[in-house]
């Protein structure tokens, strides 16, 4: 199996400058290849240029511009061209399926933040100084960069990527390793119900509070974005140092919220994996849940609209995004695969309206957000706990129905 490791890099001032130049030159290569594809399709009888044709041109590009393109790894530049080719493949796939096409766009320097090295030892080398107590990664054109390795890397390193996040630099490794030993069996099964008031509730009656990292940082983010809005929109060459610092402040706050959300998701998922052999959760369509409210035209007055609850829906969408359900479920499935646990997604419909005691399903069974009161058998419980219990039953039924 493949596992990714992400470590903080500690480059010197000169190395950080070289890393920035590497991103800039790879971004220029990406945009140039995109422009060539656009021009060929528009002006040369709708000719489609593929990755193979552009990869062959790399030798000429490197010899023509040795200062900018010739100094970097040939394999990393090929990976940048493959990245563009994947973007076009995804574009054509969306066109065929009838989705929003999303034609590949040109990347600004600040929006191109990753350079990939397809193979360890080709333009890069992990742990390039094995006898040095400080781990280092060697990058062609940059040198041996110190790495803060907070955990050991198991297995053979296959690919290396360099990523910029704000003013920080990270190295991302993918290593091939044997399937780890599954965790000891606990004999416990659980169903979880995702929510807003509580991050999740399980079928045993336990609750994980919602940390609301985005809401806690909202005041600081609002102040930082207000400060950024004071600067007029001008070209990049005319931006001042104060403007750049305001941009970095907003990015820094967003990055902190993102890291806090990831940390909470990892810890919560790890607790569930260690304690339970089987976990069932709702198959949530999060993208549909956070869509904006549709306008309601007023049939009596053309050109006007009726109230549609857009303000409340916007607040709900913001809370769902702040909870980070999608990130948590992705991490939960990944950890379960490594630990030998079973995770199953079930249909979420009526899970909080069906009585776990008598099976009666009705909207009236849930008179309040947190209250469940069955109108048939008078069963009362917390609505989220009832939902988690029904999710667990549906998950067990689906597991038992699957062929061995």
Shape designation: globular
| Number of β-strand runs | 16
**Tally of individual helices:** 11
Tell me the structural class: alpha+beta
Instruction: Please give the radius of gyration in angstroms.
Output: 26 Å
Percent of sequence in beta strands: 15-25%
Which series of helices and strands comes N to C?
A: EHHHHEEEEEEEEEHHHEHEEHHEEEH
Main sheet: strand order? 2-6-7-1-5-4-3
Low-confidence stretches: none
Main beta-sheet strand count, sense and barrel state: 7 strands, antiparallel
The overall number of domains is: 2
Distance between the termini: 23 Å
Average pLDDT over all residues: 91
Fraction of helical residues = 40-55%
Can you summarize this structure?
The protein is α+β, with helices and mostly antiparallel strands and 404 residues long.
What does this 3D model show about the protein?
This protein is an alpha+beta fold. It folds into two domains: about 1-175, no CATH class; about 190-400, no CATH class. Helix content is about 40%, strand content about 20%. It has helices spanning about 15-45, 50-55, 60-65, 75-95, 215, 220-230, 240-275, 285-290, 310-325, 325-340, 385-400; strands spanning about 1-10, 115, 125, 135-140, 145-150, 155-165, 170-175, 190-195, 200, 205-210, 280, 295, 305, 340-345, 370-375, 380. The chain has a seven-stranded antiparallel β-sheet. A five-stranded mixed β-sheet has the order 10-9-8-11-14. A two-stranded antiparallel sheet has the order 12-13. It starts with a strand and ends with a helix. About 25% of the residues are buried.
């Amino acid at each position: 199996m493949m596992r990714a490791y992400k470590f903080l890099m500690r480059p010197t001032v000169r190395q950080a400058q070289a890393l920035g130049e590497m991103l800039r030159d790879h971004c220029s290569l990406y945009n140039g290849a995109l422009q060539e594809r656009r021009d060929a399709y528009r002006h040369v009888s709708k000719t489609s240029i593929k990755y193979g044709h552009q990869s062959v041109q790399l030798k000429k590009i490197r010899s023509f511009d040795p200062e900018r393109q010739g100094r970097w790894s040939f394999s990393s530049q090929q990976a940048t061209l493959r990245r563009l080719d994947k973007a076009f493949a995804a574009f054509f796939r969306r066109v065929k399926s009838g989705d929003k096409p999303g034609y590949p766009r040109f990347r600004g320097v600040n929006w191109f933040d990753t350079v990939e090295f397809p193979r360890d030892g080709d333009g890069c080398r992990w742990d390039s100084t094995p006898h040095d107590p400080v781990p280092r990664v060697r990058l062609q054109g940059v040198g041996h960069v110190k790495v803060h390795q907070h955990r050991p890397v198991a297995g053979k390193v296959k690919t290396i990527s360099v990523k910029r996040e704000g003013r920080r630099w990270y190295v991302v490794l993918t290593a091939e390793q044997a399937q780890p030993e599954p965790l000891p069996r606990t004999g416990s099964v659980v169903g979880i119900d995702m929510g807003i008031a509580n991050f999740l509730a399980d079928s045993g009656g336990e609750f994980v509070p919602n940390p609301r990292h985005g809401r806690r940082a909202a005041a600081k983010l609002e102040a930082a974005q207000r400060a950024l809005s004071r600067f007029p929109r001008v070209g990049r060459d005319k931006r001042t140092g104060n403007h750049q610092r305001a941009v970095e402040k907003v990015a820094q706050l967003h990055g902190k919220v993102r890291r806090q959300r990831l940390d909470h998701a990892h810890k919560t998922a790890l607790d569930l994996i260690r304690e339970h052999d089987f976990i069932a959760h709702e198959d949530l369509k999060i993208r549909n849940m956070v869509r904006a409210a549709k306008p309601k035209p007023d049939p009596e007055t053309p050109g006007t609209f009726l109230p549609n609850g857009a303000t409340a829906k916007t607040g709900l969408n913001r809370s769902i995004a702040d909870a980070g359900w999608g990130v948590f479920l992705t991490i939960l499935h990944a950890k379960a695969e490594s630990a030998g646990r079973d995770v199953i997604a079930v249909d979420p419909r009526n899970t909080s309206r069906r009585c776990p005691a008598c099976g009666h399903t009705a909207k009236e069974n849930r008179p309040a957000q947190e209250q469940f009161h069955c109108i048939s058998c008078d069963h009362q419980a917390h609505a989220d706990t009832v939902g988690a219990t029904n999710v667990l039953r549906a998950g067990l039924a689906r597991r038992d129905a699957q062929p061995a």
